[in-house]
Specification:
35% of the residues are buried. It is globular, with a radius of gyration of 25 Å. Helix content is 65%, strand content 1%. The C terminus is likely disordered. By secondary structure, the protein is mostly helical. It is built from 20 helices and two strands. The N and C termini lie far apart (50 Å).
Amino acid sequence: MTRVFEGMKGAWRGWRAGMDGTNWTGLTGLAAGAVAIGYLTVMVSTLAPDKPALLIVLPVMLLTAFLFFYSREAFLMVVLLVRAGANPIFEETRLAAIGGLGGLLNALVILLAGLIISRDPRRVPRAAWLIWLPFVAMQALGILYSPEKVQAIRLYLGQLSVVALFLVSFYLVTSEADLNKLLRLVTWSSVPVALVTLVYIGLGRTAGIVDGLESGAGRYGGPFPHANILAFYLVLCLGVLLYRWKSGQIGRQPVTLFAVVGYMLLLIGLLFATKTRSAWISVVFLFVVYGLFRERRYLVYLAIGGMLSMLIPEVRERVMGITQGNEVVQYAQLNSFAWRKLLWEEALTWMSPKRYLTGYGAESFQELSSTFFSMAGRVKWGAHSAAVQVFFELGAIGLIAFVWVYWRTGRMIATLWRARPLLALIGLSLLGANFLVSLSDNMLAYLIYNWYFWLTMGAICALACRIAGAGERRKSRPWGIRPSKYRPPPESRPATPDAPAPEVPPQVPAPALARLPRLTGGGRYR
């Protein structure tokens, strides 16, 4: 019995850690799976005239399964690198009944996070779990009395994948070098997105959306189905690039500096192509905060850039459009903000006071919008405000849990203010901009953007916990954040006054070490 138990335990460890190319049983299973997928390909080929992208799904599933079994970390890195740019393929393979390849990938990400974290749960501090636990619990409770349970469960699984990436970043980031690797991954993920967007602009392929009661003329969403998703994703990438540039990771040489600045200008140009005003405000907010605290000349650059951008007719029309259509009268066409205000007012007025505490259930806003919204017509409208949506669906308790996510994340990032002021400044700016935008947009529905955004926030918070655990005494606990109990191995642990650097191994002569070049950079990625 003991031998059987030990065998099961060893099999679990092998499954959890991945094959690393040595598990022949797993390889045999994958070979059998390849044969099965071959037969399925013949069956699916009958759907090819309607959805040609389905022919790509099964080979990609085989490759994904092999990579997932081979190395958990490699699977995650590849997914994050290509997921945003490959979104058109995921959209083309979407099926109403099962959700398509995207739903499968969300489930794999949740499973992957569980497997990785289970290797060493101490790497994820209790404070990280407490950030999301109240909101996730309220969302699960809201499913029980949701009027649209199937859609609510699907979106809940998507939200769980976002939380999974936030938590797994605490496992992956144990030093500043690890953080810089993840930020570099986020940067490179934007390259296929930019290329696809440029191709779509060249083809004249817009996002094809309707913004409020306005026609979405000339708004480009690139690989995403909505222009706003691309816009907020570009704001995140610009913030990450700004930090990597100003922290000295990139742009040290004239050639690389030219490439970095040119690429940032390209992303700003693509941001203008989305015509998303809230994203424009977000990126201005980011650079204004940076200019006020770090380099005042950026305020001058912003003023000059703003005046030049108003020379572009599309930008000027989009900016001035907010001043028109603010009155609700018969046959009047409202601008997008006035339309949102009318939607929010009618939704909150329609709510029964008995529902103020717990709301009407997950996904109830869109389902009931045709009932309470006078301008709904035959369309079921989203809330266009994460805060209003959460209050309507989960009540005041859910809204408090939603604000709690941002509050605790911001406090954790703020602990970096003394040790890494630039990282804290940009991290808090991105978090604040995201929260402000969530007051006027459907941020909970933008899954791919949320993946990258909360992975970035989690990585910054993970570094804050590591620094707090390495350099602060247990009694101090800045901002009430408990340092992580996880400690890296002695050879990789940073030197602190309380924990000096490990001694030189005796087998290496001291004179030989003295001749080696010293490493500098304060933990920068090399």
